[in-house]
Amino acid sequence: MTSDAKKKMQYRRLGRSGLQVSVLSFGSWVTFDNQLKDDTALECMQAAHDAGCNFFDNAEAYAGGESEAIMGRVIEQLGWPRHSYVLSTKFYWGLHGRMPNMQNTLNRKYLMQAIDGSLERLRLDFLDIAYCHRADPNTPLEETVWAMSDMITQGKALYWGTSEWTADEIRAAWDIAEKHHLHKPIVEQPQYNMFSRRRVEQEYARLYEDIGLGTTIWSPLASGLLTGKYANGIPEDSRGALPGHGWLADRLTDPGQIAKVESLRPIAAELDCSLAQLAIAWCAANPRVSTVITGASRASQVVENFGAIDVLPQLTPEVMGRIEAVIR
């Protein structure tokens, strides 16, 4: 990818914070370790970086910690200066099986130990963003907020946020932080795509203005459905065919959704882009989206996905209206 491609990248503030992230970013969910080992991961991350991507997303639970380890080794090998990229990871599921305090929790003991493990695997001194990967109804929210705030005070993270929390849970956490003068959650990482819209567009609507919430959205391609490659079933080399991902099969082969995807093809053709690029650009067209987290199993997919930056200016109100008529 050329330097011209890098110049096209847009950067947005993460909510009301001063942190700027590339509007298109790169994440490791599903692909790292399952489909990508170090060499291919390096090629993908370099391709994203060459396109102007400065935000890379991970999670403790991805591939049982190996996803973080791969990303850590790759960044060390690439030799990127620490100031040149933003890196996040997420905590909740744990890595220690059914051990008490170490699985499906956001209690203080788990969080304080989990971030140390992630930093070791990522070969970093600090995270830019630490997320609570899910809400924990069994731990007092105040305990979780204090622990996340303390991560920042201790210099182990710069910002913290949530992933797939309800609007009420996010607001309650923010209010606790406000009451005790703690570091507040600034960002939520929800699923968002043409087929999953309610949470970002409706549930969180008040939070954008009230608390300045940023969003780092995942699954812009609806696990690949919006690429159009599932029109004739599940290809053997696709995400839907991976062991342990059978739960995706019904969604990826839903006739109604496939029909909508096929109805988007003429629009993509008129814009001279792929369905994937159209779907990613559509997500980025929402000004409430700070960054769109993309994934890939090879560098050529990264190049294609990041080509969505050229499609974004073409999404005029007329084009967006035509898309809306198809997907609503």
TrEMBL record:
Keyword Transcription regulation: no
Keyword Oxidoreductase in record: yes
Family: Belongs to the shaker potassium channel beta subunit family.
Keyword terms of this UniProt record: NADP, Oxidoreductase
Pfam families (UniProt xref): Aldo_ket_red
CDD domains recorded: AKR_AKR6C1_2
All copies of domain NADP-dependent oxidoreductase, residue ranges: 24-327
Any GO molecular function: oxidoreductase activity
Name used for this protein in its record: Unannotated protein
InterPro entries: K_chnl_volt-dep_bsu_KCNAB-rel (IPR005399), NAD(P)_OxRdtase_dom_sf (IPR036812), NADP_OxRdtase_dom (IPR023210)
PANTHER family cross-referenced by the UniProt entry: HYPERKINETIC, ISOFORM M
Annotated source species: freshwater metagenome
Gene3D superfamilies: NADP-dependent oxidoreductase domain (3.20.20.100)
